[in-house]
Design a protein that fits this description.
mainly alpha
């Protein structure tokens, strides 16, 4: 009798897992084997791109590394610098995993970039793009200057980009639970991702009211997380404020390293997204307002602190579905014109 119960439990779990997979992949045409192979290829490519700077630390990344060490009890609270410790989830995972923190952090970022690539490929498939464009969607995530330069460092940006990519797929695929979950995890990685959940609540209020309670629940959970981190987990750090400054704007305009980083991050994807804006499939319509809204936090940050190519890198999950519709990219991939296919 106990054996039958165990077998039923295993079967139920297997059935539940299969139903989740089916919900994510349907009605995407390539088989599960295809997606597993594509994920493996993306993971190997990401590893090759990230290997040479694996586990490096500079400026911001050092602050996240110190946060992980604090969570392991190897540094005092006074060694931390706000606001970096409040972006807790990725440093906490790096501290929780066995082994050296630096290697754990880099490993997580590799997994995040691989996950972001496959999420973009799934999004392209759900939007009706063909196989070359599907593969290209993931390549646009990985084969980029920000991934080459920043992803191997101990930063939380790869985790945030992965959460945003899954969020975009959840919105495009019509999976409210996935979008809400990705948004909630995104907030735990970087606080500015709460904008995702605010947008989600507003969008569902206008288009899908039956899913609105799920967005509000995720938004409430995100606020509770942020308050818990600041009031109960990381307590006693000096306060900080981001105040716009004309001096900072003037300094940014003379900082050639920052300007070069921004230019390299934007030079390919931003023109493609602009070119594909009007030609993008109807399913990507929500991403246009989401892109404009998510551009506000980095624009405000540029008035207050030094920014670099990571500001545009964080927008890649919203830019890529639009970029795939550009006529130039479609011709390069020798794909049929989407307007002719309609």
């Amino acid at each position: 009798m106990p054996d039958n119960t165990d077998a039923q439990t295993v079967a139920a779990r297997s059935s539940s897992s299969s139903s989740v997979t089916a919900a994510i992949l349907a009605p995407i045409s390539p088989s599960q084997i295809y997606w597993i192979g594509l994920l493996t290829a993306y993971a190997l490519l990401a590893l090759a791109i990230m290997w040479w700077r694996w586990g490096g630390t500079v400026e911001d990344s050092l602050r996240y590394f110190e946060t992980a060490l604090y969570l392991r009890g190897e540094l005092p609270l006074q060694a931390l610098t706000a606001p970096f410790p409040y972006r807790l989830l990725v440093p906490a995972l790096a501290a929780l995993l066995p082994g050296e923190v630096r290697q754990n952090f880099a490993l997580l970022n590799w997994l995040f970039m691989s996950g972001a690539a496959i999420a973009m490929a799934l999004t392209a498939a759900r939007l009706g793009f063909r196989r070359k464009s599907i593969v290209c969607a993931g390549l646009l995530v990985l084969v980029s200057v920000p991934t080459f330069w920043y992803a191997p460092y101990l930063l939380v940006d790869p985790g945030s980009i992965c959460a945003r990519a899954v969020f975009v797929f959840g919105v495009v695929a019509g999976l409210p639970w996935l979008a809400a979950l990705a948004g909630l995890i995104g907030v735990a990685i970087r606080e500015e991702n709460i904008v995702l959940l605010c947008w989600l609540a507003g969008w569902w209020l206008l288009t899908r009211r039956q899913a609105l309670p799920l967005a509000l629940l995720a938004l409430a959970g995100a606020v509770a997380w942020m308050l818990a981190v600041r009031w109960y987990v990381i307590v006693g750090l000096p306060s900080y404020t981001w105040v716009p400054s004309m001096w900072m704007v003037g300094h940014a305009l003379t900082d050639w390293r920052s300007l070069l980083s921004l230019a390299l991050a934007a030079c390919l994807l931003l023109p493609l997204a602009i070119a594909g804006w009007k030609r993008a499939p109807q399913g990507s319509t929500p991403l246009k307002s989401l892109l404009l809204l998510m551009a506000l936090p980095p624009l405000y940050a540029a008035l207050c602190v030094r920014v670099d190519g990571r500001a545009i890198w964080g927008l890649y999950p919203f830019l890529i579905p639009l970029a795939l519709s550009s006529r130039w990219l479609q011709r390069l991939l020798a794909e049929p014109d989407r307007e002719a296919m309609r």
